[in-house]
Amino acid sequence: MALECGIPYRAAEDGLHLDDTRIDELLAALPADRRPSLSLVRDKSAFGRTLLAWSVGYRTVDDLRQAIVRARARRGELRRDDAQLVLATAHGTKGLEFDHVAVIGMDDNVFPSRRTLEDSDDPNRAMEEERRLAYVAWTRAKKSLVLVYDPAAPSQFMRDAFSDAELAA
Questions:
Q1: How many helices (H) and strands (E) does the chain have?
Q2: Looking at the structure, do residues 154 and 97 belong to the same domain, yes or no?
Q3: Is 120 within the bounds of a domain?
Q4: Do 69 and 132 have their domain in common?
Q5: Which long-range contacts (C-beta less than 8 Å, at least 24 apart) are formed by 151-158?
Q6: What pTM was estimated for this model as a whole?
Q7: Residue 41's pLDDT band (boundaries 50, 70, 90)?
Q8: Which residue has the higher pLDDT, 84 or 19?
Q9: How many beta carbons lie within 10 A of that of residue 130, not counting itself?
Q10: Which secondary-structure segment (H or E) carries 156?
Q11: Whether residue 1 has pLDDT greater than 80
Q12: Is residue 20 part of a domain?
């Protein structure tokens, strides 16, 4: 979103994987004039699925390749150490404070992560660790906190902290 809106930001990791060489390798193996979605369906890797999601809206593999080049350049312009917007994971904010915090992804099966709970040898312990992580994220704000969630599917943590009336408001 920061890239799309042209907002300077700082982040230890922005999660975009734009520098991953697999992007270029995968795209180089595809016909430039073909629809990227159809060409990428054959790649069953997690990375291939991510690239497939990126490809929506592009007519050809070459169009997608050009968009990635533009996104890399845009990120180079906007990602700065002096930016006021900080993008961070909940883990990355431990011990830090900010005037304003927005926690995104407070949706069912997102936070707590369904995969984290399913893959854990001790789901109860994993749930409590996820709860502690949510607490870390929620308590970083000094002035304002915004919790972003799907009203049709708020996370367990949102349901624990707020009434149904508050979540529907």
A1: 9, 4
A2: yes
A3: yes
A4: no
A5: 153/107, 153/108, 153/109, 154/106, 154/107, 154/108, 155/106, 155/107, 155/108, 155/110, 155/111, 155/112, 156/108, 156/112, 157/106, 157/111, 157/112, 157/130, 157/131, 158/106
A6: 0.67
A7: low
A8: 84
A9: 20
A10: helix 156-161
A11: no
A12: yes
Residue whose pair of structure tokens reads 């404070």 in the numeric block: 97
Question: Residue 86's Cα: distance from chain center in Å?
Answer: 14
User: Residue 98 belongs to what H/E stretch?
Assistant: strand 98-103
Question: Do 51 and 119 share a domain, yes or no?
Answer: no
111 and 160 fall within a common domain: yes
* Residue from 18, 137, 150, 36 nearest 77 by CA: 18
Structure tokens at 122: 């001790």
> Of 55, 78, 101, which marks where a domain is finished?
78
Instruction: State the residue range of the domain holding 71.
Output: 2-78
**What is the percent of the chain where pLDDT is above 90?**
24
Last residue of a domain, one of 33, 50, 78: 78
* Rounded-to-integer distance, Cα 149 and Cα 51, Å: 25
How many domains is the chain built from?
A: 2
**One domain for residues 103 and 144:** yes
Tokens 């304003």 -> residue: 100
Helix (H, G, I), strand (E, B) or coil at 40: helix
Confidence band, pLDDT 50/70/90 cuts, at residue 50: confident
Measured distance between the N- and C-terminal CA atoms of the chain, rounded to whole angstroms: 25
Both tokens of residue 17? Answer: 């994987």
Give the number of residues written for the chain: 169
